[in-house]
Write a structure and sequence with these properties.
Distance between the termini of chain A: 15 Å
Largest sheet of chain B: none
Shape of chain B: extended
CATH topology of the largest domain in chain A: Rossmann fold
Order of helices and strands of chain B: HHHHHHHHHHHH
Oligomer: heterodimer
Largest interface: A-B, 31 and 28 residues
CATH architecture of chain B: Orthogonal Bundle
CATH architecture of the largest domain in chain A: 3-Layer(aba) Sandwich
Radius of gyration of chain B: 26 Å
Number of strands of chain A: 10
Strand order of the largest sheet of chain A: 6-7-8-3-9-10
Radius of gyration of chain A: 19 Å
Structural class of chain B: mainly alpha
CATH superfamily of chain B: MetI-like
Number of domains of chain B: 1
Number of strands of chain B: 0
Chain lengths: ~280, ~300
């Protein structure tokens, strides 16, 4: 029980420095500093600081209710929509604080794409219209550009070959796995720099999951990806860095291989060995 | 000492008791449910049959297009009433639908505050208001002020009946749209009004249309507020500032006359009113059924 109450602040900082020194040459795309989220005064995420590198995948793992999704949603100010949620701290993308008062979240959200747990393509739109929704509804109407972006985005999401002849088909006629890849394409179409994924494969079968994972590995070449997952094997397969959260605290944050083979914290060790979940 | 296995056997045997009785109860409930439906349908069906049987004999081209003849002559038609009903439904919808839809959007999308709570409360009260009171209200603030009966006053009174219905059904339909679509729109960097008008509304369209049609049907048959505002007339529409006829008014007048021929015309007018409302309903539904080709209402 003592392990559960450990406040791992020192550990956290030293881990961060580890990553820092490891590859100082690659730049941080996004930095979350002292982020705390509370719902009706109860903290769901407690003072979390994390740095996310360009062209890398960071996984957030932890048992249900540990605050990983809540934290992820801070990174593009999704909590603005929830009335009783309060966020403090900083989220820097490049050198801009998303939570600064003189920032328009609508504009800056476009730098951060998001894929949700359950596929949520817009039900009244075709495949083409779904991919281009973020562009068309923001006033981009040039057919040539839209066509190019649709093809590029669907190819990046590994969906192009399956749908290239049915772009006018309704999005909800696609299978669950295809819908999720469509949602990835829709997120990519607005040309974000960071991609947030909230358990993107949890509602999918193993084959669809594998396709999504291939997509993530491919997208890593261009994006900083932050993925919340329940599945530790998935974290091992796709991520470069992993953060383990428990009851709102970030317990340990290191390179994935090291976190899983040589966890520094007793609690992390217990979790990755499957003693609780 | 009974082991857990033995107890489990005992529990299982409990389920074997009273099987026949439970199946019988199930059957009886089913019979009651079906009987109630039939009891509810009989008056509805017989009204329709009666209206159709009596009304169809009155209907002719002249009946649909002529002005009313002299009282009790059995001549003339209900042309002005048909024209007036179409005008008054159109005008009321022009006022009531946009206000109702916007209020519904406010209640659903911006409605997490005290103002919305009170609006919602008054809206619900308003929906139950006796329509004659709305007629008197329109009479007081428009007819008395202007000094003459007015088509505007009628449209105003009917739009007051319409907008709470439209607001409520719009709110309910928008709330049915899962939050995940709003979140997806937010994550794409869209503004709230674009998310509301281009994503949420298009997913909620069929429910909203149902609400609007419901309100159109409701005002199509309203009589009391029209007595106070447009009065009724035997002439075709001439201006917004003079009395106008409408089908419910005409039906009411004809049915009060002590002549068989007039009452027959009343049946005819009732049939025409039902047909108009049915036509508007089917027409608009057909239009939207063709338009919403992607929307299969598959929310889970």
């Amino acid at each position: 029980m003592t392990a559960l109450s450990t406040k791992p602040t020192d550990m956290e900082t030293s881990n961060l420095t580890n990553i820092d020194s490891k590859s100082a040459e690659s730049k941080y795309k996004m930095i979350a500093e002292n982020v705390t989220v509370s719902y009706d005064g109860i903290d769901a995420v407690k003072n979390v600081t994390m740095k996310f590198k360009e062209k890398s995948v960071t996984a957030l793992i932890g048992p249900s209710g540990c605050g990983k999704t809540t934290f992820l949603r801070c990174l593009n100010r999704m909590h603005d929509m929830t009335k009783n949620a309060k966020v403090t701290g900083k989220v820097m993308i490049d050198d801009i604080d998303l939570y600064s008062k003189d920032i328009d979240p609508i504009y800056h959200r476009r730098k951060v794409g998001m894929v949700f747990q359950k596929p949520n393509p817009f039900p009244t739109m075709s495949i083409f219209d779904n991919v281009t929704a973020g562009l068309r509804l923001n006033g981009i109407r040039d057919k040539r550009i839209l066509d190019e972006i649709v093809e590029d985005s669907l190819k990046m999401a590994y969906l192009w070959d399956e749908v290239k002849n049915d772009l006018k088909k309704s999005a909800i006629e696609l299978s669950g796995g295809q819908q999720q890849r469509l949602c990835i394409a829709r997120a990519l179409a607005i040309q974000p720099e960071v991609l947030l994924m909230d358990e993107p494969a949890s509602a999918l079968d193993p084959i669809a999951t594998q396709k999504i994972e291939e997509t993530i590995t491919e997208l890593k070449k261009d994006y900083a990806i932050i993925i919340v997952t329940h599945n530790m094997q998935q974290a091992i397969r796709v991520s470069d860095y992993t953060g383990f959260m428990y009851l709102g605290d970030l317990i340990e944050f290191r390179e994935t291989k090291k976190l899983f083979t040589d966890p520094k914290d007793e609690l992390t060790a217990k979790y990755v060995q499957g003693h609780f979940g | 000492m009974s082991s857990i296995q033995n107890r489990r056997q005992e529990y299982r045997s409990l389920f074997k008791q009273n099987v026949a009785k439970r199946l019988l109860v199930d059957k009886i409930v089913r019979i009651i449910v079906f009987s109630c439906v039939i009891i509810a349908i009989i008056p509805l069906g017989s009204i329709l049959v009666e209206v159709f049987k009596n009304g169809i004999t009155a209907i002719s081209i002249e009946f649909l297009t002529d002005t009313p003849g002299s009282v009790g002559s059995g001549e003339g038609g209900i042309g002005p009433a048909i024209q007036g009903t179409l005008i008054i439904i159109g005008l009321s919808s022009l006022i009531g639908v946009p206000i109702g839809v916007m209020s519904g959007i406010f209640l659903s999308e911006y409605g997490d505050n005290k103002l919305a709570k009170s609006v919602r409360f008054f809206n619900d009260v308003f929906m139950e208001f006796p329509s004659i009171i709305l007629g008197i209200f329109a009479f007081l603030i428009i007819v008395l002020v202007l000094g003459h009966f007015s088509v505007w006053a009628g449209a105003f009174a009917l739009s007051l009946i319409m907008f709470p219905i439209v607001a409520r059904t719009t709110e309910e339909s928008l709330k049915m749209v899962p939050t995940t679509y709003r979140e997806a729109g937010t994550a794409l960097g869209l503004t709230k009004w674009i998310i509301t008008f281009r994503i949420v509304i298009s997913a909620a369209k069929s429910g909203m249309v149902t609400g609007i049609l419901l309100s159109v049907s409701r005002i199509g048959g309203e009589t009391a507020p029209l007595i106070m505002t447009i009065l009724g007339s035997s002439q075709f529409f001439s201006s917004m500032d003079t009395p106008m006829d409408a089908l419910p008014l005409r039906i009411w007048r004809l049915s009060l006359l002590p002549y068989d021929s007039a009452q027959l015309q009343g049946w005819g007018a009732a049939l025409v009113l039902i047909m108009i409302i049915l036509g508007i309903n089917l027409g608009i539904r057909y239009y939207f059924a063709n338009k919403k080709k992607y929307f299969l209402q598959k929310f889970d």
